[in-house]
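Working notes for the structural subgroup meeting. M.R. asked for a predicted model of this chain before we commit to crystallization trials. I am recording the input and output together here so anyone reviewing the notebook later can reproduce the run.

Input as submitted:
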Amino acid sequence: MPLWYPKGYFVQNINFDFFNYAGLHRPVLLYTTPTTYIDDITVSTSVDQDTGLVDYQIFVEGGEHFQLEVRLLDEEGKVVAQGTGGRGQLQVPNAHLWWPYLMHEHPAYLYSLEVRLTAQTAAGSVSDFYTLPVGIRTVAVTEHQFLINGKPFYFHGVNKHEDADIRGKGFDWPLLVKDFNLLRWLGANAFRTSHYPYAEEVMQLCDRYGIVVIDESPGVGIVLVESYSNVSLQHHLEVMEELVRRDKNHPAVVMWSVANEPTSFLKPAGYYFKTLIAHTKALDPSRPVTFVTNSNYEADLGAPYVDVICVNSYYSWYHDYGHMEVIQLQLATQFENWYRTYQKPIIQSEYGADTIAGFHQDPPLMFSEEYQKGLLEQYHLVLDQKRKEYVVGELIWNFADFMTNQSPQRVMGNKKGIFTRQRQPKGAAFLLRERYWKLANETTYPWSAVKSQCLENNPFTL
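Returned structure, recorded in token form:
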């Protein structure tokens, strides 16, 4: 139809469900360096009985003749270990470990690694100095558990988006503080950076709060056969290099996610994800790697290569509309099929229902607050059974309503948030809060200790 659209008319189609804001989203900082300077630091940590081990490697640019002094300070400013040179190991007796929020009465303990460079140049002596927060902790995965510092960890948290009604995707400190206050109120101990790396300030707060992060690349919308070309793979490898380089030193980051909901059942997906995951593990052997799937367990060609199975499912929402009575059977079957096939721990990485705040119906109807709550309750019944076996986490979709492209299925955006886009709670927020604090209370620490730590140490001082 030559006259159906104006001449030159063009619309960019996307294969993801969030609004693709343009422009600069985050602060841009310009800075100068000495002629010889500290370019990068890589830190990895481990524990030997009560001794914390901090392995460091320092990369210097601009010269070959320099000296490096390294000191590790505790939160009181006391030097607990020191060394020299560009590579080494610091040993910290009776180390304070970095624990997640609600897993320990003193979570998120951070040491400070101070690196001082002195170099001799033709123009004289120059120096550079950098301080890096360091959390001493370990991460491991078994056939049915996710371990932090050797203890089983259960993800009870959210998926998010960098999105709000005033600034869109633009970085906003007051909004960030509000969101983290809501996460703590909710009793959430984790979130996934769906579906792209978040601002560095977000990661810094996660380190200081003890909020565990599944750090996801912008590998979203990988749906066409062409998406698995060698050109795409090469670009994806470079993207993972950039992500790991930026976020490798954050103790809050416990797992990398290389993609969200790819068509991993397509034939080229097997080689693609095998290569991508192996590359990510080579970049950082200290963390498990996953991608988030919504493919059938039998057809998924990427699942054999992940360390943790992350599954998205929307029973009684995108199919069997309104029939919440089928959720328990379908969800239990989902978990059993995935575990029987792969013998790996499983995270329910997305589940939820669109809800218009203030809509009420009894009996529950879709889009009402009662339906969202009822759907979550059905999921929780199965999760409570399977977390005793091999399910190691649940992340609600979504923390807050967010903008999407316009479509008949989206009423001014995606409304699956437990908070509105303005961060006001729907009924499901209170349901989830009760659940998450109950899950937190099942740790070895008494309720009073877990609860009181919310009042200690202002987390907003960076």
